[in-house]
Amino acid sequence: MSAVRPPTHLDRVYRFGDFEYSVRSGELRQNGKVVRLQYQPLRVLLVLLENSGEVVTGEEIRDRVWQGAAIQDFDNSLRVAVNKLR
Known about the structure:
- By secondary structure, the protein is an alpha+beta fold.
- It has a single domain, classed as Arc Repressor Mutant, subunit A.
- It is 37% helix and 17% strand.
- A four-stranded antiparallel beta sheet has the order 1-2-3-4, covered by helices on one side.
- Helix 1 crosses helix 3.
- The protein is globular, with a radius of gyration of 15 Å.
């Protein structure tokens, strides 16, 4: 008898509007077609999806996306990432 593996965070797929984001593959798809985005915008998107309906601070995003990286102008980096998501 085989044990059923419980789902993990990596198995999560977020669906919103015409979009789908797979945590495991790190792919964002719109109507089934892959949307090409850089690493940081995808990480920002994941933080926002994981906290859907909640306020997420810039500090929380910085801690999750730019973990310990020396960011000269974090506000601009975040603004660029969000603009790419739009």
